[in-house]
Write a structure and sequence with these properties.
With about 800 residues, the protein is of the alpha/beta class. The longest helix is centred in the middle third of the chain and has 17 residues, at about 415-430. The protein contains 26 helices and 30 strands. The strands form eight sheets. Strands 20, 21, 22, 23, 24, 27, 28, 29 and 30 form a nine-stranded mixed sheet that branches. The protein has a six-stranded mixed sheet with strand order 2-1-3-4-5-6. It is globular, with a radius of gyration of 29 Å.
Amino acid sequence: MNKLSKIEEILNFVQKPARYINNELNSHSANMSADFSVVLCFPDIYEVGASNLGLEILYHLVNEKKLARCERVFAPDGDMETLLKREKLALFSLESRSEIKSFDVLGFTIQCELVATNIVNILDLSGIAIFSKDRKENDPLIIAGGPALTNPEPFCDFFDLFVLGDGDEAIEEIIAACKESKKAKFSRLETIKKLSKIEGVYVPSLYNVEYNDDNTVKSVAPVSDDVTAVVKKRFSSLENAYFPEKKIVPFVETVHNRLNIEVARGCPGQCRFCQASKYYRPWRQRPLEKLLDFVKKGIVATGFEEVAFLSLSCSDYKYLDKLLIETNNLYSKFNLNISLPSLRCNKRSLKVAQYINRSKRPTLTFAPEAGSDRLRNVIGKYLSEKQIVETLLTANAMGWKAIKLYFMIGLPTETDEDIAGIERLVKLVMREAKGLNFTITVSPFVPKAQTAFQWSSMIGADAIKQKIDFLHKLLPANVKAHNHRASVLEALLAKGDRRLSAVIYKAWQKGARFDQWADKFGNNIWNEALAESNIDLNFYVYRDRKYDEVLPWDHLHFGVSKEDLYSDYVKGINETANVEVEHFDKSQCSLPENYVEPKISVLPSTRRLRLRFSKKGAVKFVSHLEQIEVLRRAARRSTLPVAFTAGFSPQVKSSYGPPLSVGHESSSEYMELYFTQKVNIEDVKREFTRVLPNGFSLLSMKKVPLTFPAIDILANIAEYKIKDTDISQKIIDNFLSKDKILIEKTKKEKTVEIDVKPLIRFFRNEDGILKLQLRFGSGKTIKPEMVLQKMLENQENYAKIYAIERTDLYVETKNGQIYEP
C-alpha cells in the first residue's frame, strides 16, 4: 500500500478526520511544479490554528503572489500521532499530503510559550532533526515568528532563525533570498548567514552566550564582527499592506469560525504587563475604504454569518463608528452579526456596541484587569471604578444581560485590598443592575520579556491558588480560573534562557504535549524534566531582576529601550490613586445618544426546494453537522433569496436528510431550502454549482409544498454500495438465515442489544459489489459498518476500511412499496 493510501486508511480511525484533509473553500491547490516550497505550521490542533489570522495572511500572500508553493500543517492530536508512528508515516501537509521534511522551509507561528513541546513533537514526527546543529544540508530551514518570541531564547536550539515583528514583508524577502541561495547552491550555513542580513531576522547560532557563576547571563555577543550586535524587530505600514480577500472556510468548527478582518495593528495604550502591545507596536490603522472592501468581498467569498473586526484595541480605531454603521446598513438584511473582541470599558465602546450582534445581545467582554484604581494605575490600565460601573450599568440599560470580566491576580504591589476590590466592584454593579449575570475569568500575572514588568517575579503557585479559592467563595458570579501551574510554566519559558531548550526536550521525551490545554498539562513531567536538567525553577520565575542584570533577550530590540522600560517600571510600582474616590452617577448610565433598539425582521417563506447532493473524495470525512454548515454557508454565498429562521440567532431556514457515518461517500445527501420569493430552478442550479466546495456536487432538485413533511421524517430506508469486498453471497445468506441478528449499541453511556434482522431489507452481492438496504426510524437505526462488523465476527477495523457509499434514500409505505422522496 502506498503512502497516500495509508493516510486515507488511517483517517477512518481518528476523531474529526476533516482536520487532516484539504478541500476547504478558498484554500489553494498545491502547485507541485513550483521551484520552492514552504509549509506553514501552527503548533496546535486544526480548530485553533485555522483561526489564526497571521498564518492565513502569510498563506494567501505566498500563494497569490506565486512566491512559492505554500501549504499548511497543524499539530496532530494524540490519536493521529499514535497511528502515524504505528504505520511508520511521517507527518504530512494538508494540501498535497507531502512529507513535511520534503519542503524547503518549515515556518512556525508561535502565539504562546506553552506550545514548546508540540514544536519538538512536530519536528520529530516529520523526521527532521530536533536540534538545529544536527540538521543536514537537505533538511528544511526551520523558522519561527509570533508574539511569544519577545524572548525566543528557550527555543533557540530548535530553530535556524526567527523573524521578530511583522512577517508579511519579511517572508517575501526570506523566500527571495532562499531561492537565490538554492540557485547558487549555497551551503546551509551560507544561506542562514545571508538571511541574517534581512531586517528583523535573528539567527541564534550567530551569537554566543556566557553565564556568570550565579547563573545569570554574563554576555550575549556576535560570533564575528559582520554580525549585528542588536537585532531590531521589523514592522510594516498597513496603508497598503496585503490582506486576503477570500478567507478559508473550514469544514471543522474552529474556535473563531467567522470572517476575521484586522482593522489595526499595535495598541495606543501601553499597559505595563502587555507583551502583545510591545510586539506589535507601533499603532497602525488600515484605511476605512479598504476595510469596507474586505468586508464586501469576504462575505461574498465565504458565506460567514459573523464578521469580527480585530485589533488589540478596536475601540481606538479612528473610523470605527463609520465602519460599523456602513457594515450594518449593507448587511443587516443578511442577518450578519458583527463582533468586536477587544473593547475598552468606557462609554465610547458602548456607543459602537449598539451595532454588535444586534440580533441576539450576546455577552459583552471587558478587561478591568485589577480590583482597585491604585493597582490599575500601577499596571498602566488607567481606568477608574466610576468608569467601569457606569459602563456596565449603561450596557445593562441597552439590553445586555451577560457580562464577562477579566482580572489578573498576583500583580506587582498587589494587596488583599486589591483582591477585595474585585468583589466590591461586582457586587456594586449587581446591586444596581438587576438580572445582570457575570462571568469572572481570573488568570495569574505572568511577567513577560520586553515589558516594563520584565524585572518582576511571579507570586508562588500556592499563593495563586489561595487567591483563586478566595474569589470563588466571595464572588456571586461564575468564576473561571486559568490553570495556575501552567502559568508558572509559561513564566519559566517567557523569561528563560537557552538552557531551557534541554528542559523542553526532556519534557517532550517524557510525554508532554499540548500543555496549553488544562486537561493535558503534565505538571509532574515538567518537574521531573527540570530536576533531571539541573534547572532551578525559582531562579527563573520567583526572582526579581536587578536593572543592571544582563537579561537573556537584551540583544533583541522591540522598539523601546531597556532604559525606558525600566523608567516605566519604576513609575508603575510607585503609582497611587486619587485619595478622593469618585462615585458613579447613575443618571449618567443612560442610553447613548440616537440609540435605536435593534429590531429583528424575518421575511416569510414562500417557496421550498429539495436539493440532492453527492459528496465524494476527501469530503467524505466531513461529519453530518459539519456538512450542514457547509450547505448553509453555500446558500449564504449564493445570490438567491434564501429565508431565515426567526428568533435571536437567525439561520438559513433549511432541513436535512439523515446523518451519514464519517468516512462514507454518498450520492444521496439532501437539503430542503426555503426561499422568500419565487426562484427559477436553473438559477438555483447555477448558483449552487458555483458556490459548493470541491467534493460536493448538486445532482438534482424538485419543488416541495411548504406543508409537506421534511426529508428526515419521510425517508426510512437507506441503500448502500460496498466495494472492494471478498464477501460471497453464501456468507451473506448464512448470515441472514439466523433467527436473530443481535448487535450491541451504546447510547448515552448505556449499552443495549437490538435485533437488526428486521432492519435489513435487502443484502446481496452483485458482481462483487455488495448492495445493502437498511431500514431506520422509530428509534432503531443501524450503520452498515456495524452489520459488516457482525458478519465478519467483530473484526471492527476490517469493516471500517471498506469503501461504503450511500447511493439512495427511499420512503417505504406500510404495504412495503418504496419510492424516492
